[in-house]
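Protocol step 4 of 6.
Sequence for E3 ubiquitin-protein ligase MYCBP2 (Liparis tanakae) entered exactly as in the expression construct, tag removed. Do not edit the line below.
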Amino acid sequence: MQELKMGVASGEEETQAVMKVYSKEDYSVVNRFESHGGGWGYSAHSVEAIRFCADADTLLGGLGLFGGRGEYTAKIKLFELGPDGGDHETDGDLLAETDVLAYDCAAREKYAMMFDEPVLLQLGWWYVAWARVSGPSSDCGSHGQATITTDDGVVFQFKSSKKSNNGTDVNAGQIPQLLYRLPSNDGNASKGKQQTSEPELRGLKGFQYTATLLDLERLRFVGTCCLRLLRVYICEIFPIAAVVEESSKLAECVGKTRSLLKKILSEGMDNCLTKLDNDPEGYLSQPLTLLEAVLQECHNTFTACFHSFYPTPALQWACLCDLLNCLDQDIAEANFRTSSSRLLAAVMSALCHTSVKLTSILPIAYDGEVLLRSLVKQVSTENDSALAHRFPLLVAHMEKLSHTEENLMGMTSFREVLEKMLVIVVLPVRKSLRKEVELFSPHLVSNTCGLLASIVSELTASALGSEVDGLNSLHSVKASPNRFTKTSQGRSWNTGNGSPDAICMTVDKPGVVLVGVCVYGGGGIHEYELEVLADDAQTEHPGDSAHSHRWTSLELVKGTYSTDDSPSDIAEIRMDKAVPLKEGVKYAVRLRNYGSRTANGDGGMTTVQCSDSVSFTFSTCSLSSNGTNQTRGQIPQLLYYRSEYDGDLQSQLLSKANEEDKNCSRALSVVSAVVRAAKDLLHRAFAVDVDDIPELLSSSSLFSMLLPLILAYIGPVAASVPKAAVEVFGLVQELLPAVSALNQKYAPPTFNPNQSTDSTTGNQPEQGLSACTTSNHYSMIESEHPYKQAGVTQYRVSFPDCVRWTTIEFDQQCGTAQPEDVLRLLIPSRTLHLSSLGGKALVHDTINTWTDLKKFSGATGWPTTVLVLPGNEVLFSLETASDYVKDEKACFYGFKCVAVGYEFNPGPDEGIIQLEKELAFLGSVCAAALMKKDLALPIGNELEEDLEILEEASLQVCKSHCGILGKGLALSHSPTILEALEGNLPLHLQTNEHSFLEDFITCVQTSSGGRLARWLQPDSYADPQKTSLILNKDDIRCGWPTTVVVQTKDQYGDVVHVPHMKVEVKAVPVSQKKSMQPENVKRLQRLPGSSSPPSSGPDLTFGGLPMPKLEATYEPMIVKEARYIAITMMKAYENYSPSENMLIRANTDGTYSANWTPGAVGLYTIHVTIDGIEIDAGMEVEVKDPPKGMIPPGTQMVKPKAEPEPNKIHNDDGVWLRLNDDTVKKYVPSMNGYSEAWCLSFNQHLGRSLLVPADEVRGQSEESLKEVSSCPSHEAPIRAQSRAGQGGGPGLYKVVKTGPSGHNIRSCPNLRGIPIGMLVLGNKVKAVGEVVNSEGNWVQLDKNSVVEFCESDEGEAWSLARDRGGNQYLRHEDGEPHSTGQMFYAFFILSLTF
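Step 5 output, structure tokens:
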């Protein structure tokens, strides 16, 4: 093997590590025992360990182990303790280890178990040799030596280790030998881990800064190795599927690694290129290539560890949004290619991984702006990553790190993210059309196209119902009890290389759905084929017992499982689709297993009963030929669920269908956005007269990658969903004319797109020749006839690189005699490497693995049509078992086929031509889907509707009303396809028939339809217009309660009672013009200081009285030894009534009683509303003065008492609190002879507390202001008076509050508006307008303020004066605080409302 130099050269201390492959014979042996002991036993957790140290640098190749009494398995490790390990033993660092290996040796012999590579040991450092041995008792050593000098002069010292728990120490035990070698003949080796690891880490972190001093090739190698080690190690400690132990230290290290990789990928290449250009030595032949290789390795590491760096969907979404939010600034500065291009490209590449479910990361189902907290609640809690549950420490640390590094509050909606990704895809094409420099790297554009295509792919897969989850996620899956009473201790069951194990079963309950089975596992990886079959004789053909037609396959699934999937020697295999089981029908489960021996069950039971009373009955199956039966074998358990226990299956199917329909719409919206962007670019390109336009468009990722992929993904949806087919057909109609016009403009008229190219030159044949439909590349592949048994034969077909497609056509004679004899068809799985040196993308691929595409066996099932495979290589693997079929008529022919390779070398300008073909094909798919005879039009969301019943009902309606329906429907125009699919008929709304029907349904009295409806309904009904009022108009006094009786009548004038009828009665003061009669003028002006009423004006709110004064101080009123605790009893307000709506009491005789207590004299109109319909005629009544000297009935009075009165009193108004002397002195200027002062604490009418403790006064004040702002229209005076205090309206404003850097002036009254200026504390501006929206109060600045404080005087300028939280930034210079009278007036208005 060629020597590779691993190390870092630094001046005179240059070290080199030489890696060489050695055999066991190349090592010397240190025997630490002088003789043998009796025997040495082992347990499941026994560990053998010994410490040792050498006085010279050595290479340790392995350890010697005792055996001698059978077969053993062992695993060895080597730990490094450092120079102080002899005195203080620590846990140490793991340097090397092996897998669990089997070994055996003769008695009193040692077996040399080697490490994969020799380990460099440093002189004077202590190490621990560790071994775990399993098996029978073995030989052991005794009379051990603490110090040994070898023939090479190396002195080894041995000490006991605390890691040993099975008795091995210096004197006796295991590990008798150390296999070592001196590195003197291999060059200057590096000494130990400590000296090599630190320079490697320095090389990783500082390779951009030390490139001028170090050998660039070795630096690239060290950096690449370190990155690959990081990638492998992180994926091992935080895997995607398995569960391992975590620690906070590991989480911190992973966080540091993420920060380092983000820094490397964000810095780009500018800094490094500057230093390389200034290098005086001039050894820069390959710096760009080497640096690009290291950056590509950083990209691969970041992508592979993305699930650990961002373990939750919320963090992944936040990372994507944070990088995309920098897009606008980077585009403006034209530096996005070098700042964040690589990092964003790595994030998008990681999101394109197949293990990432994009619908759980991207808030596709949410409209509008989605903040982080709502995203975490709505998305992460439902579709959270499994890492969040298995690694909480990692998640907590990464969330904390993201809060410090990224702007998590800048999250946007999915639509905004989609628009920004389209900018990345579209902007380079626009720049190229204008011959400008591109901003984005090819990596970023290509990965963005890949992410958009992945989104469409996942949505279309969900829309078609082809996701693996299916309905299984809706149910709790149960496992049946093990049908075997015991399991074999050893793994002795031979899988037979695919020989079938099968068992029959029946179920005794309905609603059972099979979702998988359990199988026994063993060592290594097993490849399986699981099939569920139904007894055809019982389901479809009773009495037919022919074996060849007995079983019908229901579901087939293929895959692999390993030891990790079967911790208890039992692995679960899930099927792609659930299989419902019918009660009493026999089913078979057949398993074909390929792999090593497995465990098996014995003592089988015929019937097993589950916890939910479901019983499975098992019986021997004729399909089983590997030994599995009712008594012993494979398939111990079944995985199932019952739909009747987990909810109605129909409702779940309905929910799944609704979700599929939504995902279809979402996929179409994404495709529509891409198509619109492509259409705009095509129109721009058509307007540019440049010869290389087709080549330019064909080379872009939008037209060569994104559009073909999304068109291919949306095609199956259009073929299966008629509504989607119509929309996709419309998209094709939009895009195809633009593509066709561009091709006609630039393509030559004689161009034949079906014409092949020359394989040697890549050029097309001469014009005028007929199109070539044959190929020059073909191969005949066939096996021996008959084929050999018990062997594996492979045939590989490899065509030249110009071949892009390969077709395979099998001969009709193909066949094998046994099911185990299989022909496997494999194609290569290639890894694409993209590099961009000098601005041009370089693509090369390498074969990673071979993907198993098809398997063929038996005499049937071989392809009868041609198989079309991508690529230029195919591998045929014929794997046969030993001959156990002794039938001479069996087919031992093998296989024979013809492989033909087809070239496809499109020119640089043929991408648009291929796009036109794909659009035409997609359009034909849509047209064919819409022209199908069995086209399934949508019938609504009710899946259980019976179409036959609907058809019969429709026919019956047509027969009964043929006269009306024969005249046709009143349509404004013929319905389009979309209107027909959606069920929206374009009815003509202006026809007489439609107006007549509307009047008929709503019973309009003055119309013919309403009169017909009245005539057709002779039954009695309550007519609001016939309702009458019973009221004594002459006995209505101010402050006295009176009763208003509402009497409901039918259309014939008879009293009628309707249960649950809603009746409302209210008294409204008449207008000033009506109430200003001569006899009432004096009465309406009795208040002192009231002005004469105007001759005309709006309706008065206070019963024709002027607005009450606010200066009056509240005080209880004492009238004839009775104290009235009510505002309306005060002298200033005794003529104002707070009551308008009345309390209604329903009687059972068709009457309703309403209680009303007028609070002021004057004219009122009694309004009655019945079920929302107000009667036409309202009754006008006059409220007169009450008799003098009489107390209004029902008023609460409190007799004066000599003893001290309580501090709190309850009455109809609420709870009143008595004020103490200090408060009275402070707030009451004059008591007017009264000895007490009371204040309303809780308003019974409002249901609110008006006085609260001092610590809550701030919150209660804000609530009171909100209540005042929501008062009815007749409270407008208080709003007008308090408006000035809030600082509203035009005028001069002063800045009273700003942020850390000032207060922004924006181009529009919106927080998303562009900042165009800045205000600081104390500035004064003049406002000419005001806007109130959901964000607060905005004021528009005048031109002088715009010139003084803005960058430009063009356009409008707005600034936020007051936000919704109450924070005031600009205060009106004329504004004054609210006065006590204004606050009291607000309270008084609230009281009047109730």
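Step 6, annotate. The mean pLDDT is 75.
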